[in-house]
């Protein structure tokens, strides 16, 4: 993704990259297109650079879902333009070359792409590959388009990287699919928590060794508040998770990371209705990271950090 056309394309592409929810922040259908203040009104905003309210980890986007296809099938010239618009921080002739993303999220798929139509995910774009096969072999040419963009992110100076999952590998799941049929409970079989953790860490080690890219965070749970099964916007990979299940996975992932030289931390994004915010997990091991929580107040879900840590 020259001038205003390219900036517009970058913005649209970035919005497409995000793994978005269907939440409507505008407050209702009647609010769409309305300006918050009358047209022509002048407002003055003052910024106090000495007063800090929060520290942001980065300005980022996700490669889920289009970039795997763009990076794999588009021409080199087309891909390079898009990469420049996403990652460049250069200013030329008074105009930015790109939006200068400083953080990039890599979708580690569950293998629904390999299942094809048997995945029951009608939208082919929302299927994802898996490096690991059920026989235990790894195929590192998978996620080719995504690998292109994460390499470009590094080339342009992107500072931080997050590996995230919508689903464990399908052969670790109860229904053998990338989507769950267990409602708000995890699709991951009880006996495969350690296997799933080992898989994520193995991929992280491969990227560090072969691409010189070290993931700053692994985020194994993504948007568990939605039903991603067939018939829901054609579905996609995804699963519900209970806090007790996330707690078990946290321990498995921590143990797997402790066996490596990686500086990677794990990042939990428990998202549903209710409270928000980031907290530190206070465990005795050194691999723990930031937990970003939206704790649900729905019946049957735990509502505090303390119960999460049981």
Q: Can you give a write-up of this model?
A:
- With 310 residues, the protein is α/β, with parallel strands linked by helices.
- Helix content is 29%, strand content 12%.
- The protein contains 8 helices and 10 strands.
- It has a 5-stranded parallel β-sheet.
- Helix 7 links the parallel strand 6 and strand 7.
- Helix 2 packs across helix 5 and helix 6 crosses helix 7.
- The longest helix has 19 residues.
- The protein is globular, with a radius of gyration of 20 Å.
- The N terminus and C terminus are likely disordered.
Strand content: 5-15%
Largest sheet: 5 strands, parallel
Order of secondary-structure elements: HEHHEEEHHEHEHEEEEH
What is the share of helical residues?
25-40%
The end-to-end distance, rounded to whole angstroms, is 47 Å
Mean pLDDT: 80
**Which regions contain 5 or more consecutive residues with pLDDT less than 50?**
1-30, 270-286, 288-310
Number of strands: 10
Shape: globular
**SS-based class:** alpha/beta
**Strand arrangement in the largest pleated sheet:** 1-4-5-6-7
The number of distinct helices, counting runs of at least 4 residues, comes to 8
Evaluate the radius of gyration.
20 Å
């Amino acid at each position: 993704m020259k001038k205003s056309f390219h900036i517009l394309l970058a913005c649209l592409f970035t919005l497409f990259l995000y793994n978005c929810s269907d939440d409507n922040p505008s407050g209702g259908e009647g609010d769409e297109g309305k300006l918050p203040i009358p047209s022509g009104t002048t407002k003055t905003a003052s910024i106090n650079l000495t007063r800090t309210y929060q520290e942001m980890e980065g300005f980022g986007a996700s490669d889920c879902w289009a970039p795997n296809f763009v990076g794999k099938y588009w021409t080199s010239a087309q891909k390079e333009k898009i990469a420049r618009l996403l990652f460049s921080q250069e200013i030329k002739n008074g105009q930015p070359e790109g939006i200068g993303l400083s953080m990039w999220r890599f979708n580690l798929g569950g293998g629904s792409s390999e299942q094809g139509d048997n995945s029951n995910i009608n939208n082919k774009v929302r299927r994802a590959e898996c490096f690991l096969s059920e026989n235990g072999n790894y195929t590192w040419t998978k996620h080719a388009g995504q690998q292109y963009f994460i390499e470009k992110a590094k080339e342009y100076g992107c500072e931080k990287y997050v590996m995230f999952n919508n689903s464990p590998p399908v052969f670790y799941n109860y229904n053998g699919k990338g989507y769950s049929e267990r409602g708000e409970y995890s699709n991951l079989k009880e006996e495969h928590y350690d296997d799933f953790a080992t898989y994520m860490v193995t991929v992280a080690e491969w990227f560090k060794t072969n691409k010189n890219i070290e993931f700053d965070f692994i985020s194994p749970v993504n948007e568990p508040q939605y039903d991603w099964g067939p018939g829901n916007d054609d579905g996609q990979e995804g699963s519900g998770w209970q806090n007790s299940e996330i707690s078990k996975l946290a321990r498995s992932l921590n143990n797997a990371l402790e066996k490596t030289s990686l500086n990677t931390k794990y990042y939990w994004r428990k998202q549903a209705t209710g409270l928000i915010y980031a907290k530190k997990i206070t465990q005795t091991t050194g691999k723990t990271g930031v937990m970003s929580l939206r704790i649900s107040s729905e019946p049957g879900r735990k509502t505090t950090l303390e119960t999460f840590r049981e």
